[in-house]
Design a protein that fits this description.
Distance between the termini: 27 Å
Mean pLDDT: 90
Low-confidence stretches: none
Number of strands: 0
Radius of gyration: 14 Å
Helix content: 55-70%
Largest sheet: none
């Protein structure tokens, strides 16, 4: 299976979405509203990105984007 090359800004947005979901899953005593607002903005940027307007993209590309973002986040954390 050929690897899809994603624009860097799209990949970084997906990384932020994954990090936001992880942060919201942890116990937190403070206010989560700013984090939830940022998550919603990142999701809007993710799904409205011009990359998805190009012909030939499918749900499989979105899954591959998530995998690539997780890999990038793991590499940066190491």
């Amino acid at each position: 299976m050929a690897r899809t090359v994603f624009p860097d800004d799209l990949l970084l947005t997906q990384v932020r979405v994954i990090q936001a979901y992880a942060a919201l899953a942890r116990p937190f005593d403070g206010h989560t509203a700013p984090l939830r607002r940022r998550l919603l903005e990142d999701l809007r940027l993710l799904y409205a990105h011009p990359y998805w307007a190009e012909p030939g993209h499918s749900y499989a590309d979105l899954v591959e984007l998530r995998r690539a973002a997780r890999t990038r986040a793991w590499v940066e954390a190491a």
